[in-house]
Design goal:
single chain; about 500 residues
């Protein structure tokens, strides 16, 4: 990273002076779709291997400590990624870019590192005094926390600059590195959660080294650009969103901790985690891809065109998203159990119901989150925090009630209830003029096609086939003939968007 104004002047001009014409959201979505598709492919390679090499107990241990790690990462980031997107100088002014690099990137990185060092010192002192012995997995999680925080912060700088091409390359390379190193460690060294963490650490170090090089070449900093008021503004905006991210992480991950504490069984954690993990893989196109493409573009649209521009952008995004979400729901209802068994093996079949319910829940929430997006645009981050914290607390309470009665499925239904409450709350307090519901015709067409697909598949039991891969093949044909093709025939707007995507991809 450049240390002075003189050295900054020699940095890459592409970062400091953004071109006036930025890629459209369709271009961003295509790039993120390709990268996330490759990442998902890597997930579908690693997932069946890990679930076969790790038993339910080891898989549960892996996800249990991963939950602790993600909570720590959310804390030490201090909400910096959110502040980066909101305060990025979209006009590309050189001086403002330098101030941004100094006050919104470098100083928060240093502050995050300081907080992590303080925490590690406390843990090390506690262990040295003999007050508690920590598992090697705990230390692996602790070591990864600052690296993952730094990776996320730098990635957000790249995303805010709307360099989706760089994000695309970085994500694919990083995921493939992790795939090779993690599977290599599990297959060649040890079939354990510790081996998985070893591979993840090496992959993260390599990725972080490349990102540090990118930062040095593209982010300008200078002592004279230091502005404590700007730093404070970033923290005031980001800290509530840090707490929001922490609350959302609790909402998404605390179930594993509570299952372990209430049942005392890591195998139950593993059953839940396997189904949940596969649901996240399937949902990557719906949630991760669109949110990555949507967030920086909607920020720029609001700054330049106000509420009207935001509603127009939402209308463009929600049309294909509605059809995609209903398609995912159809896939889960028809073939969710078969897909999990095909990828994980028959001994992991108990995770099928988890996969189906969680997949439907997070996919539905993704489209509603875009509809209700608006509080961040108005900088009402405290309200974002309050409703997310409320949903997280509701999830904890429902877990405490349902797990003793239903086991790990109690966590599944607790998650569905909490996400539903969160979506309702977001809609209720979305600033006036920014909420935009999905197109009524798209909802009607997609649901009608969904009903036909599910009825045919269930009534025939996929024509009585028993071999999993044969059932999946028939389900795929039914999906194309009873959902995908009818949607294209019945909705002219969707047909036009699909043709535009095909044209742009050539």
């Amino acid at each position: 990273m450049n240390g002075s104004a003189e050295r900054a002047s020699g940095a890459d001009e592409g970062m400091r002076t953004m071109p006036r014409e930025r890629p459209s959201i369709i271009t961003h979505y295509l790039r993120y779709s390709i990268s996330n598709g490759l990442v998902m492919l890597a997930g579908f390679i690693s997932f069946p291997i890990l679930t076969r090499f790790l038993d339910n107990t080891q898989f549960g241990i892996l996800r249990y400590y991963e939950t602790m790690m993600l909570l720590g990462v959310a804390i030490i980031k201090l909400g910096t990624p959110h502040a980066i997107v909101r305060f990025y100088p979209y006009d590309g002014d050189e001086r403002r870019m330098q101030e941004f690099g100094t006050n919104m990137v470098l100083l928060p990185l240093m502050l995050s590192g300081t907080i992590w060092l303080a925490g590690v010192s406390v843990i090390a002192l506690w262990s040295w005094l003999g007050e508690g012995a920590f598992s090697p997995l705990v230390w692996c999680a602790v070591v990864m926390m600052p690296m993952l925080a730094a990776v996320n912060i730098v990635q957000m700088v790249i995303r805010a600059s709307e360099r989706s091409d760089i994000v695309m390359a970085m994500r694919v390379i990083g995921r493939m590195l992790e795939l090779v190193l993690v599977l290599g460690a599990v297959i060649l060294v040890q079939r354990s959660a510790l081996a998985v963490y070893g591979g993840k650490i090496v992959a993260t170090v390599l990725l972080l080294a490349w990102l540090a090089h990118w930062m040095y070449r593209n982010v300008s900093v200078a002592r004279g650009a230091l502005d404590w008021h700007a730093v404070r503004s970033g923290l005031v905006y980001g800290l509530p969103l840090m707490a929001h991210e922490l609350a959302f992480s609790i909402l998404a991950n605390v179930d594993r901790v509570l299952i372990k504490q209430i049942t005392g069984d890591f195998a139950a954690v593993g059953i839940y985690a396997i189904g949940y993990s596969l649901a996240m893989q399937l949902n990557v196109f719906i949630d991760a891809t669109l949110s990555e493409a949507f967030t920086p573009v909607v920020m720029r649209a609001y700054e330049t065109g106000g509420s009207d521009a935001v509603r127009a952008l939402k209308e463009k995004v929600l049309l294909p998203m509605t059809y995609a979400v209903v398609a995912v729901i159809g896939i889960l209802l028809v073939s969710g159990q078969d897909l999990l068994v095909a990828l994980s093996g028959h001994d992991k079949a108990a995770s099928g119901e988890v996969f189906i319910v969680i997949g439907i829940t997070v996919s539905t929430y993704a489209v509603l989150a875009i509809s209700n997006y608006g509080l961040q645009l108005k900088k009402r981050t405290m309200q974002v925090l309050v409703i997310t914290l409320g949903a997280a607390l509701l999830n904890v309470v429902m877990n405490l009630i349902l797990i003793p009665r239903m086991g790990y499925m109690g966590s599944v239904w607790s998650t569905a209830i909490a996400y539903g409450a969160l979506a309702v709350a977001q809609f209720a307090i979305c600033p006036k003029g920014l909420a935009r519901l999905p197109d009524a015709r798209a909802v009607a067409v997609s649901l009608a096609c969904l009903v036909v697909l599910v009825c045919v598949a269930r009534s025939t039991d996929l024509f009585g086939l028993h071999v999993v891969w044969q059932r999946l093949a028939v389900a795929g044909l039914l999906f194309v003939s009873l959902y995908a093709l009818p949607v294209m025939v019945l909705d002219r707007k969707m047909r036009g968007m699909a043709m535009a995507l095909i044209a742009r991809s050539r």
